[in-house]
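[Automated response] Your request has been received and processed.

Submitted sequence:
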Amino acid sequence: PVKPQGNRARSPPPTPTPAIRAGATMGKGGLPCQHGDVENPLSPAASPCSDSGDEDSGSNSSRRIMGRFSPREEMLYSPRTAMNYISRTLSARSTVSGSESEAAFLTIKVKQGQTKGNLVELNFSGRRGDLAPLSIASGKILKQVSAGEVSLYSTKGGRDSDGVQIAIDNVGFAIHGDAGCCGCLQAPKRGKLKVDENGLHHVLRNISGIHEAGRLLAILGPSGAGKTTFLNILGGNLKKTSGQIILNGEEACSPTDISEIAAFVHQDDCLLSTMTVRETILFAAHMRLPYDMSNSKKAQRAANAIRLLGLEKCENTIIGSSIEGTRGVSGGERKRCAIATELLTNPSIVFLDEPSSGLDAYCAYSLGSVLKTLCNMGKTVVMTIHQPSSDLYDLFDDMLLLASGQTVFWGPASESVDYFCGLGYSCPPFSNPCDYFFLHVLNIKSGPTGDKKLAELHEAWGASVMGNQIQADLSLKISESSITIKDIVLQRMKACVPFWRKIMLLTKRGFRHFFRNRMLLPSRLLQALLSTLVALAVFWDISENQTGIMARSGVLFYFVAGTMFTSVLSVLSAFSSERSVFIREYSNGAYSVFVYFCSKILVEYPFQIVIPVVIAASSYFAVGLQAAGLKFAVFCVSLVMVNLCGTNIGLMLSSAFRDVAVALSLAPLFVLPFMLFSGFFISYEDVPAYVAWLQAISPVRYAFAALMQNEFNGLELHCTPSQEMVPDGIPGIENLPKALLESIPPICPIQKGEQYIELYGFDLVDTKRCLIMLGILLVMTLILAYATLFLTAAKSRGKSLLCLSTYVSSSNF
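Generated structure:
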């Protein structure tokens, strides 16, 4: 007979599987075998149970018939059938007492089908190779395939030793309803946000519950219920305003206490658009896996993750970006790629924000099966989800329903139907409970009626047996786990990758991204070409007469100011596209700010050095400047140093502002004052005292002064007949006879370049000191760029900018 469970009809469960000895799994021929690397879920260790070897290995006496099938034949099932059998088999372990239950052992393998997706092989073994009986009616057995298999998850005792229990005690989160961002922007009107007497709008209010290790918690609720906010608080991305978060009986005092042992998969995928799927996952493997693990094992771990999430067809396809206009993988494949990078490190806790968005029903269910397998290993999995299918709903162990930031239900998903049935919300048979909850329970409208319904649901939950039991358990604050969070963190820190290795990996990826970007390198080369063509068209073959003085000053200022301005804008627009990727990877603990900044400098500086030299080589001699090797070298060094200063300013602006449009609009405010006080528009001696400090910190001023002295020192000037002048202003000259006045020969006003330099005060700081000051300003702007990037990253990770540990922590290096 069919026994109903909850409110849905279920088929009879298969025969319970007896307990299985630790370390024994079934290989070919029904013989027990051992698997390597049981600690890591994506272990590349070769399994003795692989398809390789003699097909006739194993004695006939070892074969045992299970129904009509021989155990020597590989049993492959669809993921749905396999997951159903796994969950029921694991639940039957409770009937086994003593050491046998603790010694249970299970290995799950996935094979890539020839025509369909992933197929699941289940290896249950008992004493001397006894296979657990499997009902033929529990699922259709698929045909055997010859594709290579991936050993995914295997665990002794069903759980890892680093399971983490999460206890949430009255957690709340509120924002100010009477002030905007940073208190300077106008906030929404009070009529649009419900605020209390203190002007606070409560996004979350008194969320309490306990989530045990080895269970899958799904957070559901309508839009605006606070699901993502609550998940960000649990994942350490957002700081709570009230309550406690307790991990294995220890309070998490800061967000980093959680992020050190957890993986967080965000809803928006921040991946470099020019990298392929395989390169993205392999980069994460080299960056986050133990340094002593061989490169071949890391590559195999990445390949296993690709096959696990069904990314084989697109592993050599670039990620792409709709903003940049590059076509790549689909939205669902981007999501699976982001999940694969986080699952590589075998985290103790896995947080996922809308992991099924962009996936079809089968892919969403397959992903849920992988998460369920993580739970069976003892991992703590928490995810938010919208409208799950009925099959995906069956995988949930626990379910949290939120409405307007308040708890409506938190408990086993199998008991949710009965709970709401007791409140008068009876879910019809053969329907998806989640659909019913959203349509009939959580359809809370704004207004007095909706507020009344929400209050009734919240009061009913507070008075329920499960709600009271949660409060009683929280008052004890006792965890069954014997391992502390500090032990887990210290264990994970032993696998740190050296900073020089991270710099090398980031630099390699940065160069690859630079050369693959279809607009980045061509735009800079085009910019250098146009700059050269303009200089040649306007300043071709400057003469050495009096009018050539102004032309030489103009071409020198054009090179200095143009180099400074273009370097700021080019770096600013280029780094803004990578900023979100850096913030995401830094928040996940992949590397430090110092490591990323060093790699960014190593990628940017070579191009910022080569491009000014190319411009100088193609235009210096053509415009008619002094043809001397030393003077050409000083010209190149000055342009390179002012270009690097502009690069640092661009990095600083792009780090400070998230919106590239804001950064581009503010960039002229930083560059134009430097150009104004360069000495070209106003003499140094005529600058007002209250703005003279801008002249002292202007890279354009020192570069322009160095080039002026470099060009005009030693320059011989002459005059055309129209440029010659009769001396005037000599006392008594007007009393001389006219014949004598006509006999005075005209003179050339400026015959040496040093006269022009001295006349306009360009010699106040000599060339050597100008280059030294450019070097000092280069270092200062570099430090400012790093400090801005560090503060931005620390703020995004929830660190306090007023705390000393934020700046002196060893994780910063």
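Summary generated for your ticket: The first helix runs from residue 79 to 91. The mean pLDDT is 74.
If you did not submit this request, please reply to this message.
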